[in-house]
Structure formats: C-alpha cells, structure tokens
Amino acid sequence: MSNERLRAVMASGGWTHGRLAESAGVDPKSVERWVNLGRTPRRATALKAAETLGEDVHALWPALRQARAARAVSPELVALYDQRADVPVSTYVNLFAQVRDHIDVLVYAAVFLHEAYPRLNDLLRERAAEGCAVRIALGDAHSENVQQRGREEKFGHGIESRCRLALMHYRPLLGVPGIELRTHSTTLYNSLYRADDQVLVNAHVWGVNAYGAPVWHLRRISDGGMFDMYADSFGAMWDTATPVEG
Prior knowledge:
alpha+beta, 8 strands, about 40% helix, elongated
C-alpha cells in the first residue's frame, strides 16, 4: 500500500525521491519504498525527513505511533532455521540466481555448496557476466583463528583441510571479470551469504559445527536495520582480506 500522505506532501513541495533522499541521508530506493510500498523508516530517519518536509512525523508515518521496540520479531526476518542442515541448497542457489548487483560470501570453507551444487562456479560466472559484483572470502588455512575453530569444534585439522578444498573449488574463478576471491583470518562469528538485499546468516556457536548452528534469512527493508549491520560487517572484513593470487 502506498503512502498517499507522503506522496501529496512531496508533490506540493516539488520534492523528488532523489532530493528527499539526499536531504534525509538515505538511498533514493528507500524513499521509493516509503512512497510506493508504505514502508516505515527508522525513527531517526523519519524525524529527519519529516523535519526536512516541514511536516509532523506522525502524520506522515502513523506506524511510528506503535513503538518498534515492542516488536518481538524483526520485520526483516524472512525465515529462521534451527540449523544450517535444514536449509535446502536450492535456497542458496535461487537467491544467487536472481541477483542483479551483489553476491557476497563470507565463510571459512562451506564446501557443502559445491558438493551439493556442482554448477555453482558456472552460476557465479553467469551472474558476473550480467554485471553482478561477486566477492568470495574464505578462511586462511594457516590462520590461528581457523585452527582455533577446529580445536573448539573438536574437528582438528579437518577445518583447515576444508578451507584448502574450498579454495580449490573457487580457484577456477580467478581472473573472471566481476569476481574477486580473497582469504581472511578473522574470528568468524557468522557465515554470510548475501544476494542483493537478502542475506542468509549462519550463526557460529562455540563447540558446534556450522552445519548444526542456526540460520536466519533476512531481507533489507529500511536503512540501518539488521541487514545493513551484516553488510557493513562484510565490508569491514573485506578490507582486511588478502587477494588470492593466480
């Protein structure tokens, strides 16, 4: 449902999506969602936008009268899985197949993707050829953090071997325009599988293998939400990661 009140205020003042977005410090797509889909922005953003337009925030976004803190479940949550093993591989494949702009993968190994879907590299090549930016970050097998994870999960050198195996799976993508492959040595709190405005977050639980830990599926709705938090985290990690040489 569209926000007719906001649409009328913008029209009366000659405001475009881009102009309001710049004033409110958000992406024009966010303003489009406010107007055409009736989305409610975060309170701080709503206050700034309303002030810019010279309107009462509660007149523009009645939904803000209901405290966001009272919500038991984030509106960005699409699905929650008890463990990664419950997530069909088709979920990952379908998300990646539909992207237009971004695929980001942050894992230590996650060789289950190639094992369950041998065409994964072909799919990534296809998306990159269509202009999608693909970034893959794998665990550095020599990293103390990777080795520590193996000890904690009682998996020993197994996780190091899987990091090396994952790198072998992705190596054929080196040099493909639009695809970047790096290794990282960070403490991995969550594995991330991002496809444009959606992300699958595999939580890591001390002493539990990743396949037995929970996964939540998020879809970005507004600025500064849970999705953005994980997207920003990926960006910060990526800046510290090491490009894989051919």
